[in-house]
Amino acid sequence: MKNLDSIDEDELLMLRVSMHDVGAFEELLHKYSDISLKVIKRMIGNSADAEDIVQDFFLKIWSNAEIWQPQAKFKTWLFRVLFNAVTDYWRKQKKHSELDDELSDHLPSALDILIKTEAEQAIKIALDHLPYKQRAVLVLCYYENFSNAEAAEILFTTTGAVQALLFRARNNLKNMIASNFDRGDRKNGTKRI
Amino acid sequence: MELSEFKEFIQIYGANIDKWPTEQRNAARNWLGDIRADEALSNEKKLDAMLDSYHIDTQTNSMIHRVLQKIGEHDFGPTLWQIFAKPYERKLIPMLCLAAIGFYLGITQAEQLIASNNLRSLQQIAPYVLGTALFNEDGHAA
User: Fold this and answer.
1) How much is the mean pLDDT over chain B?
2) Deepest in the core among A152, B15, B87, B121, taking most CB within 10 A?
């Protein structure tokens, strides 16, 4: 248990939420709903389900607020719960392979890339095929600027493992994008510049 | 920081040195302008550009409204119990209540037992209860 001096602004907010202060909960929603939705959308790539997950996540925070204890840093605790929601979602969707540390068998086809030639679509497809932890560290560290230590705490791993996962994630993305553009080019009979 | 380390970090954190951990950032800046380092950076910049092109639109106002509406609809609010009782008290109080009910039932059942066996008081059954608890039928310790 932390002492009062070491409790930060977010933790005080959450303490108020734990006493079922609706105003504090609304403040928490405004502060974290945007980043939570971004993270979930990048993790699952399905915007309709993403909103439902984030909505349920905040309802769960509200209904379980009273048992919250300021033990871990609030932000890491919050995102740990959020990532648990992602794994629950995948389990429900029976996408077991997503949780493995292997690349998905169903790599993006050349046709996918040809249809969606925009860089944004290409990276979206490639991200969708990254294993869970590689995608998670990329979303946290690259997109949301979490430190390696914070990402490690959220994903129950070490900072060394986070570095290794980041390296593998970027490497896999480069390979996936390159191989698909190559396949697409061959199919079209064009050469890459 | 050696060039090999610099190249390794580019492959981990990307070409934008501002996104690197603070410990490595300053040492990495010393490499900027070096041809070999710039070449390594330009390769990684392509991936960064693709990653940065993936924008996410987040319109959270309607979701916030829905969440607040839901907590209003359901009785998620605190009860006096939740406000005043500490977590351990919430476990202890029901246990004490159950113990009290058990004690009360025990007493009333004992009265009935006394009545049915023509025993007049608890003093009369106490040795029997203690005897069966501590010794078995042969008189040996249980």
Assistant:
1) 77
2) A152
| pLDDT (mean) for B75-101 | 70
Q: Could you tell me the fold of the domain covering A1-96?
A: Rna Polymerase Sigma Factor; Chain: A (1.10.1740)
Choose the mutation target among A142, A165, A168, A193 for the interface with B, i.e. most B CBs under 10 Å.
A142
Q: pLDDT, tens digit, for every residue of A59-84? A: 989 988 887 777 778 888 889 999 99
Considering only CA atoms, which of B7, B3, B2, B1 is closest in space to residue B42?
B7
Are A152 and A162 in contact, with CB atoms under 8 Å apart? yes
Q: What is the largest CA-CA distance in chain B?
A: 107
Range A105-193: architecture per CATH: Orthogonal Bundle (1.10)
Partner-chain contact A37 B60, CB within 8 Å? yes
All structural domains of chain A with their residue ranges: 1-96, 105-193
What single DSSP character describes residue A67? G
Whole-angstrom distance, CA of residue A123 vs CA of residue B41: 19
This prediction has a pTM of 0.68
- CA dist A2 and A115 (Å) reads 54
Max mean pLDDT range (A7-11, A94-98, A148-152, B61-65): A148-152
- Structure tokens of B11? 């492959």
* More confident position, A23 or A182: A23
- B53 with A19: Cβ contact below 8 A: no
Q: In this complex, do A34 and B56 lie within 8 Å of one another by their Cβ atoms? A: no
In tens, the pLDDT along A102-121 reads 555 555 555 455 445 566 77
Query: B72: burial class by Cβ within 10 Å (0-12, 13-18, 19+)?
Result: exposed
ipTM exceeding 0.85, yes/no: no
